User: Which sequence fits this backbone?
C-alpha cells in the first residue's frame, strides 16, 4: 500500500487504542473509527471518527501529508465536553506514538495545524470537530516520487 494510506491506517490503529483504562479521557469504540468513510456523518445519533488522508504537499523536496480527522459526538447535554476531550485524546495518542512512526517511516514530523469545533442546536444536539495534522514523511534535496510500499 502507498505510504499515505499506511500513515492514515496507522493513525486509525492508534485512535482505536484510546480508552480510559489506557489513561485517556474517553473510550473509543473501535467499530466507530474509519478510514475514508464517505457516509460517516449520515447518522446524527452516533459517534464517529473518520480519518482522511486529504492531500500531499510537495515543496522543496519535502512531502507532507495532510490528515483530517472528523469527529462526531453522540447527542446529549455534554457534547461539548465529550468532543473537546476526544480531540485532546487524539492529540495525546498521536504524540505518544511519534517514535513508532519514526521507526517505521524513517523521517517523520507531525504537527497539528488546527481543530475546529461545531455544535448544532436543533431537534438534535450534536457536536462535530475536525482535526488537521501535517505529516512530513520524506525530505530530499529534490522532489522524487515516494515509491515505498508498506503492508
Assistant:
Amino acid at each position: 500500500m502507498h505510504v499515505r494510506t499506511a500513515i492514515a491506517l496507522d493513525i486509525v490503529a492508534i485512535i482505536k487504542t484510546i480508552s480510559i483504562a489506557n489513561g485517556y479521557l474517553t473510550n473509543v469504540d473501535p467499530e466507530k473509527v474509519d478510514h475514508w468513510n464517505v457516509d460517516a456523518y449520515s447518522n446524527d445519533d452516533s459517534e464517529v471518527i473518520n480519518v482522511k488522508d486529504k492531500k500531499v504537499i510537495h515543496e522543496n523536496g519535502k512531502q507532507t501529508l495532510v490528515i483530517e480527522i472528523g469527529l462526531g459526538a453522540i447527542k446529549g447535554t455534554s457534547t461539548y465536553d465529550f468532543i473537546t476531550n476526544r480531540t485532546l485524546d487524539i492529540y495525546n495518542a498521536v504524540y505518544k506514538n511519534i517514535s513508532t512512526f519514526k521507526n517505521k517511516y524513517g523521517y517523520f514530523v507531525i504537527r497539528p495545524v488546527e481543530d475546529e469545533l461545531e455544535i448544532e442546536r436543533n431537534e438534535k444536539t450534536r457536536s462535530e470537530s475536525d482535526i488537521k495534522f501535517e505529516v512530513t514523511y520524506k525530505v530530499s534535496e529534490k522532489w522524487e516520487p515516494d515509491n515505498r510500499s508498506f503492508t
User: Anything to note?
Assistant: The chain has a mean pLDDT of 85. The CA atoms of residues 120 and 126 lie 5 Å apart.
